Amino acid sequence: MTNTVYIATSIDGYIADKNNKVDWLHEIENKDGSDLGYLQLMDRIDVLIMGRNTFELVVDFDCDWPYTKPVIVLSTTLKKIPKGYEDKIHLMSGEPAVVLQQAKALGYEHCYIDGGKTIQAFLLQGLIDELIITTIPILLGGGFPLFGQLSESKKYELKESKVFSDEIVKSFFIR
User: Fold this and answer.
1) CB atoms within 10 A of CB 160
2) Which residues of 64-83 are buried (b: 16+ CB within 10 A; e: fewer)?
3) Are 136 and 10 in contact (CB under 8 A)?
4) Would you identify the CATH topology of the domain 2-174?
5) Which pTM value belongs to this model?
6) pLDDT tens digit string along 71-90?
């Protein structure tokens, strides 16, 4: 099973600002009009695993449901799938290793892990194989950090780094 993180951060490592907003992601113009490798990632994965907070953030976006792949939402508080999403998400809870066992039992082999707390929990247990991090040239000075405290260091190798629109940097790390 392969587990991949694909996420954007500020230069100072935040994935959401002090108000838990991500509007700043659109402050830098994507002059190339590139999807920054997103569609290529979506072709490689079988399922998205995201936390409840990320699910609620996506639901609040002013757009249709953006995913064509199955989505597992992790939550200890959400007990019922919200109306209108019954055919779009599966609810699960538990430690990351247990969730991955359940996902594997459903036939999934490549997971896209999304959401700050979810990513941190999977990293803490050494369950992230690939990190694809797009750095947006902005300093937020606070907010929700991508990385939390780890009990030990985790070594990754830089596989590739690309610059988009002369200022957005996407780095691809593997374990």
Assistant:
1) 11
2) eeeeeebbbbbeeeeeeeee
3) yes
4) Dihydrofolate Reductase, subunit A (3.40.430)
5) 0.92
6) 999 999 988 888 888 999 99
